[in-house]
Amino acid sequence: MFHSKLCTGCMQCVSACKQGVHQVLEHDGKKMHVLDTELCIGSGECIKVCCYDALTLVGEVMTTDQVFDKISKDLRYFALEENQGGVTFSGGEPMLQVPFIKELVSKMPKVNFCMETSGYAPRKSFEEVLPYIDLFLFDYKMTDPLLHTKFCGKDNSLILENLSYLYDSGKPIILRLPLIPTINDTPDHFDGIASLLKKYPKILRAELMPYHVFGLTKSEELGEEVSSLLPKVGASESLVQTWLEELQSRGCTNIGLS
């Protein structure tokens, strides 16, 4: 990630990187630091020479032993018998890492394990991970399958099938509801949420996840193009309250903010 506001233009990273990621361009007589992130192999050589923390390496390949070592330092704070705390697998999409999760859980003492998931994964993956997970935080992003395809890349049929499977298994579920102004805060989607909660009355609760813009800055720092579809401001408190009232008027009483 390149944090441009912290960069002083020393350009030490240009000579340190052998892949040509860092480049110097001139604009109006001034030298500019630009990155071609497609060339990056994650060596971190540029970070070693950056004295101003303008560059950070995001993501790290780790073994289950390495992850366990990190977790074990805090185990006493969330041991099951003390405070019902535990470990949450999040992402990205943790259902893409089922073998890793199973191996990690086998190394852990008995604590609660929670899975935060979009629900988009093969049924077989959910069958494999089911015995190890105590609670599922399950996203429900869009009711209309065509809109789901437009904004998420795939329709929601597999997601709904997996939600039904988890519910029938008896596993505790919290339904997570990411809401984005002008995108999915529609009467049709609110109706869909209400219908889903009526269909699955034993879902522990539903939680609104109001849209914020933190990810826009991260996208820029990663050199990614920010989608023109996304609002440039987050959801206001008054809008969030309106969403809650809309859902409550549809009979969704066991609902709050995440």
What can you tell me about this protein's structure?
- By secondary structure, this protein is an alpha/beta fold.
- The chain has two domains: 4-49, Alpha-Beta Plaits; 64-257, TIM Barrel (Alpha-Beta Barrel), CATH 3.20.20.70.
- It is 36% helix and 17% strand.
- It is built from eleven helices and eight strands.
- A six-stranded parallel sheet has the order 3-4-5-6-7-8, with helices on one face. A two-stranded antiparallel ribbon has the order 1-2.
- Strand 3, helix 5 and strand 4 form a beta-alpha-beta unit.
- The longest helix has 13 residues, at 157-169.
- The model has no long low-confidence stretch (mean pLDDT 91).
Q: Which terms summarize this structure?
A:
258 residues, alpha/beta, Alpha-Beta Plaits, TIM Barrel, 2 domains, two-stranded antiparallel sheet
Q: Give the H and E element order.
A: HEEHHHEHEHEHHEHEHHE
Which architecture of the largest domain does the CATH hierarchy give at level 2? Alpha-Beta Barrel
Overall residue-averaged pLDDT value = 91
Under CATH, the topology of the largest domain can be stated as: TIM Barrel
Low-pLDDT residue intervals, each spanning 5 or more residues: none
CATH superfamily of the largest domain: Aldolase class I
Give the oligomeric state of the chains in this entry, treating copies of one chain as homo and distinct chains as hetero: single chain
Percent range for helical residues? 25-40%
Residue share in β-strands: 15-25%
Distance between the termini: 28 Å
Question: Helix count, per DSSP?
Answer: 11
Instruction: Give the CATH level 1 class of the largest domain.
Output: Alpha Beta
Any idea how many domains? 2
